[in-house]
TrEMBL record, chain A:
<keyword id="KW-0256">Endoplasmic reticulum</keyword>
<comment type="similarity">
    <text>Belongs to the TRAPP small subunits family. BET5 subfamily.</text>
</comment>
<dbReference type="InterPro" id="IPR007233">
    <property type="entry name" value="TRAPPC"/>
</dbReference>
<dbReference type="Pfam" id="PF04099">
    <property type="entry name" value="Sybindin"/>
</dbReference>
<keyword id="KW-0813">Transport</keyword>
<dbReference type="InterPro" id="IPR011012">
    <property type="entry name" value="Longin-like_dom_sf"/>
</dbReference>
<keyword id="KW-0333">Golgi apparatus</keyword>
<comment type="subunit">
    <text>Part of the multisubunit transport protein particle (TRAPP) complex.</text>
</comment>
<keyword id="KW-0931">ER-Golgi transport</keyword>
From TrEMBL, chain B:
<dbReference type="Pfam" id="PF04051">
    <property type="entry name" value="TRAPP"/>
</dbReference>
<protein>
    <recommendedName>
        <fullName>Trafficking protein particle complex subunit</fullName>
    </recommendedName>
</protein>
<dbReference type="InterPro" id="IPR024096">
    <property type="entry name" value="NO_sig/Golgi_transp_ligand-bd"/>
</dbReference>
<comment type="function">
    <text>May play a role in vesicular transport from endoplasmic reticulum to Golgi.</text>
</comment>
<keyword id="KW-0333">Golgi apparatus</keyword>
<keyword id="KW-0256">Endoplasmic reticulum</keyword>
<dbReference type="InterPro" id="IPR007194">
    <property type="entry name" value="TRAPP_component"/>
</dbReference>
<keyword id="KW-0931">ER-Golgi transport</keyword>
<dbReference type="InterPro" id="IPR016721">
    <property type="entry name" value="Bet3"/>
</dbReference>
Amino acid sequence: MTVHNLYLFDRNGVCLHYSEWNRKKQAGISKEEEYKLMYGMLFSIRSFVSKMSPLDMKDGFLAFQTSKYKLHYYETPTGLKVVMNTDLGVGNIRDVLHQIYSYIYVEYVVKNPLCSLNEPIQSELFCSKLDSFVRSLPFFSARAG
Amino acid sequence: MSRPANRRSENPKIDWHLPTISSSASAHHMSRELFVLTYGALVAQLCKDYEQDEDVNKSLDDMGYSIGVRLVEDFLARSALKKCRSYSETADIIAQGAFQMYLGVTPSVTCTNAKRNEFSLILDKNPLVDFVEELPAARSSLCYCSLLCGAIRGALEAVNLAAEVTFIQDPLKGDEATEIGITFLKKVEDKKKKRNK
């Protein structure tokens, strides 16, 4: 069980942060294009999901999985999007993504007056706290799962 | 690991109790008096910096806006609320959730128009004016708490709800209670970022 990588987007599509822990294959395009691709996909899938839902929507798009990995998605009402790719053994981790939002993003970015929102996060403290948080997750193991 | 934040509403302390997950994110207690006096000092300094009352009001409103944009993230993080389904639900959350969490008071909410997009929050006691009796004669159009209006406006904009927030009744100008009016304007839609071709 492992975490492959993590993206943080703001409401305008700017990629605020990206970290990877265990990624065997790169996308083959530049990082900028990758972020735009990821954000565009998320935006489209969210509106698709809400349009095509046969029932009233509660939480919207939560996750998708392939035969090799699972992509988890969490969005706050302020438009901050947390995207985490893990392997298939991981269940519903919305509460983990919420914790990344509330205990790391809000604490170390929002509350820091020197960190401007809507720009990629420069804070080293944020990066290290995020890294140690993810490494401490029960489903994270340094060896590829 | 995720403990809900304790919300003890104690007088006179404002209890900003952060969940204890690490030694740095521990419980913060701040004396209410310190907060109110700091706000008063801020307004006093702005009055020294600007001659016109409108400039002071605008400055407070802008500061409040910047505060609101960030404060809403903290509020959402600690209350874990989902999107509100109606304007009246939003107004209720502002009054019972946010005001209670950050100022320790709960205003009452009334809807003031048939279209259900104008609301009034009425506070019997506004903690920010605890030590202010009346406005000085030279500053009669000063809106002492415009930071609050700016904060509410900023917070609502951060969740894509454009609104106008103003003071309808102000005890420093002779009214009995504090009344804040929120008018929700048309919703701002999420725009997809244009791709650079």
